[in-house]
Amino acid sequence: MMRARLLLYRLSSTLLGQAILSALSFGVSVPFLRQKTAGTGKAREPARKRPFLVLITVDTEAGYVSKDERRVWQKEAPEAFQGYHAGIRNLRRIFSKHGVRATFFLSTHCFSSAGGEYARIITELKGLLKEGHEIGLHPHPDSDRALQKKLGREFPATSCFFYDTGQLLEFINSSKRLIGEHLGKPAESAIKSIRWGNWALNTDGAKAVAASGFLVDSSATPGIAGHEGDSRKFDWKKAHGHSPWRLSSTDYADCQSTAQRGSGVLEIPIATFSFFGKAMRADPQYSVLLRKAFARYHAHADRSQHPFPFVVMTHSSEATLREGSPTKAALELENFIAFAKTFPDVEFTTALEARNKYLKN
Ligand SMILES: [Zn+2]
């Protein structure tokens, strides 16, 4: 599984590899995108009245990309704070150049940095806020040293499946307070969106998210599960839909949940697609495949009642090499933004803005 992904990263990073993927891109499909009209068995052509929203979301954490395209993650290299300062700086340049505002889901681990690195990180985070980007929360209790220090103990897992609602609430509230202490109270109050680390939300997590005043969750990866049997377990196999839903506090993966049955939290799922049967997330590092999936969504997602939010995800750590220069993945993200802009009705928005536009119609 990990080998297959590394192979894809490497393929995507060379021209020859991109040509191969391009030749194979007929293998891209989007399960559950076109809904059948009840009774007729015929797929209906969706009306395209409302905007097609594009959300660039960045899981903001330690780490970097090594020369051989391997991803070094926060868990493996908690001291690799360039994932924050250099990663955010490289992304800010791209977003400024293209006039795009994005959503940065922040692991509060960054607040355990020190000295010059800490100062650089704070500068970057404040720069994000000044430029109109949104900061949300991205809990990784097992690798977040600032959170562990605040709570006076270590935690064995990132996934919500290993904790009860009380413990999950403590993670959320302490992380928010850390943001307040380091970025100021207004930054803390502005936190309205969340993506659980490793997409590993569950029903207890959904309760904690609803109870702590969030308005948006973007943890869902419809049709995809992973890490069953280890501390990063996540499971969105049952969620067979790509449109937003009201996050339910009785069954987190119930994507039919409505305003009557769900909480006040709107689940805006990450766009997923299938490549020869392998489920994949909308990630610019598979740029050739992402473009194909994007075009499919743009043509077929139902926009008759609400705008459709298309969520792309990347990591700040994937935007920087060890020494701080931009990565091929960062370049691919930039190329994707330019590509998406050529489509009609496209609007780049942050998570909270997308929620407001979605609910307003
Ligand atoms: Zn993460």
Task: Describe the protein in words.
The protein is of the alpha/beta class and 361 residues long. The chain has one domain (47-360): TIM Barrel, CATH 3.20.20.370. The protein is 36% helix and 16% strand. Helix 9 (287-300) runs parallel beside helix 10. The radius of gyration is 19 Å and the shape is globular. The N and C termini lie far apart (40 Å). The relative contact order is 0.19. The mean pLDDT is 92. The protein binds zinc ion. Zinc ion (ZN) is lined by residues 59, 61, 138, 140, 197.
The total count of strands amounts to: 16
What is the name of the CATH superfamily?
Answer: Glycoside hydrolase/deacetylase
- Strand-and-helix sequence, N→C? HHEEEEHEHEHHHEHEEEEEEEHEHEH
Distance between the termini: 40 Å
| Number of alpha- plus pi-helical segments | 11
| Chemical compounds bound to the protein | zinc ion
- Beta fraction of the residues? 15-25%
* CATH class identity: Alpha Beta
Mind telling me the C-alpha Rg? 19 Å
The CATH topology corresponds to TIM Barrel
Sheet having the most strands: 5 strands, parallel
CATH architecture: Alpha-Beta Barrel
Poorly predicted residue ranges: none
Question: What value does the average pLDDT take?
Answer: 92
Work out the count of structural domains.
1
Shape: globular
Please give a handful of descriptors for the protein shown.
TIM Barrel; 36% helix; binds zinc ion; four-stranded mixed sheet; 16 strands; five-stranded parallel sheet; 361 residues; 11 helices
